[in-house]
């Protein structure tokens, strides 16, 4: 049994993490924090936890004590805050899983350029936490930088093609749509119901911070310096991401070679559901689960491959992936606490 604490438990990712940890047979939640709700019960902030989690939220000012009482600390805070936790717990045996961006980048200069925040823990020993692709590094990592939501959907869609050198890496376009929970729980005018409902829009064109994260992973797997076009969109639903990824096939690459690339990469992966060629993943098919659903199409007219990827942004794109990383790092079965059927409809 591992003792775990959740820093930032009242955000959507933190609350989703608590939901998943409740059914985990080898995890005991010992501390939960919130700066805005310290002293309150989590079940008063989130009534669906009534009788399940009636724990009092504390301040992360007690971070040293929290670290001493924990085997793992999950950090569910906006970028710029996890570094303080990492530095404070550096000399303790506790391990850290950061659901934010602070520990996702091997090159902290890239982080600073895109996030406009000074990285204050440059020497941290960290690994990128996309479970299916960085499993071996995650097993012994002190700090795991949990992969982002758009990035998880997009990297899982493209990594097999990059690794097998089947696509021209300079031609990648990622067009992704997310539910509004990806923007967090804070009140923002663009996410206000009358503003959002019955509307569909792009945002962060050529500037979204998940761009370099996708580029970093695809560079790892292709051995090339990858630059992509990434355009996110907001859709009027609470959960889900559908990522549509385009790339030009290299000369001589056949549809069967594309099929084989996905099969060899993911055939044994429980959380990657391969629908196959000429299929259409849907966010509703993975809602509430840690699954990533993949389908792909070959456009012979343009010599391009189009890969479709669907995830639940709060589960596989955040809390579920964090639990999967926790399982890997603890030596547990990866499915522990995550072996659930998607919620439908």
Describe this structure in words.
By secondary structure, the chain is an alpha/beta fold. The chain folds into two domains: 2-124, NAD(P)-binding Rossmann-like Domain (Rossmann fold), CATH 3.40.50.720; 150-313, Dihydrodipicolinate Reductase, domain 2 (2-Layer Sandwich), CATH 3.30.360. It has eleven helices and 13 strands. Strands 8-9-7-10-13-12-11 form a seven-stranded mixed sheet. The protein has a six-stranded parallel sheet with strand order 2-1-3-4-6-5, sandwiched between helices. It is globular and about 60 Å long. The mean pLDDT is 97.
Biggest sheet descriptor:
7 strands, mixed
Widest beta sheet: strand line-up: 8-9-7-10-13-12-11
CATH architecture tag of the largest domain: 2-Layer Sandwich
CATH top level assignment of the largest domain: Alpha Beta
Rounded to the nearest angstrom, the radius of gyration is: 20 Å
Overall mean pLDDT score? 97
Beta-strand fraction estimate: 15-25%
Question: What are the segments in which pLDDT stays under 50 over at least 5 consecutive residues?
Answer: none
Distance between the terminal alpha carbons, to the nearest Å? Answer: 34 Å
Q: How many structural domains can be distinguished in the coordinates?
A: 2
Helix percent band: 25-40%
């Amino acid at each position: 049994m591992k003792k775990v604490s959740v820093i930032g438990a009242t955000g959507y990712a933190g609350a989703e993490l608590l939901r998943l940890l409740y059914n985990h047979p080898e995890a005991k939640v010992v501390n939960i924090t919130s700066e805005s709700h310290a002293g309150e019960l989590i079940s008063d902030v989130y009534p669906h936890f009534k009788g399940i989690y009636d724990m009092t939220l504390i301040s992360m000012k007690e971070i040293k004590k929290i670290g001493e009482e924990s085997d793992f600390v999950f950090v569910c805070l906006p970028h710029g805050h996890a570094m303080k936790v990492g530095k404070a717990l550096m000399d303790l045996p506790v391990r850290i899983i950061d659901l934010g961006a602070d520990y996702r980048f091997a090159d902290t200069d890239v982080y600073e350029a895109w996030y406009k925040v000074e990285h204050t823990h440059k020497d941290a020993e960290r690994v990128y936490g996309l479970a299916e692709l960085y499993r071996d590094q995650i097993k012994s990592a002190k700090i795991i930088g949990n992969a982002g939501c758009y990035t998880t959907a997009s990297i899982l869609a493209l990594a097999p093609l990059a690794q097998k050198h089947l696509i021209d890496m300079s031609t990648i376009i990622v067009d992704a749509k997310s539910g509004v929970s990806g923007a967090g729980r804070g009140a923002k005018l663009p996410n206000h119901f009358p503003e959002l409902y019955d509307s569909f829009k792009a945002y962060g064109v050529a500037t979204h911070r998940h761009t370099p994260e996708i580029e970093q992973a695809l560079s790892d797997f292709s051995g090339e310096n990858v630059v992509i076009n990434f355009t996110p969109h907001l859709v009027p639903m609470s959960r889900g991401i559908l990522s549509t990824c385009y790339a030009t096939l290299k000369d001589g690459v056949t549809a069967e070679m594309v099929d084989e690339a996905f099969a060899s990469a993911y055939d044994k992966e429980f959380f990657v559901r391969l629908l196959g060629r000429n299929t259409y993943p849907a966010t509703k098919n993975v809602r509430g689960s840690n699954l990533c659903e993949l389908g792909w199409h070959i456009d012979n007219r343009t010599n391009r491959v189009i890969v479709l990827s669907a995830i639940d942004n709060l589960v596989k794109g955040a809390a579920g992936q964090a639990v999967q990383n926790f399982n890997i790092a603890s030596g547990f079965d990866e499915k522990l606490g995550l072996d659930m059927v998607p919620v439908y409809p």
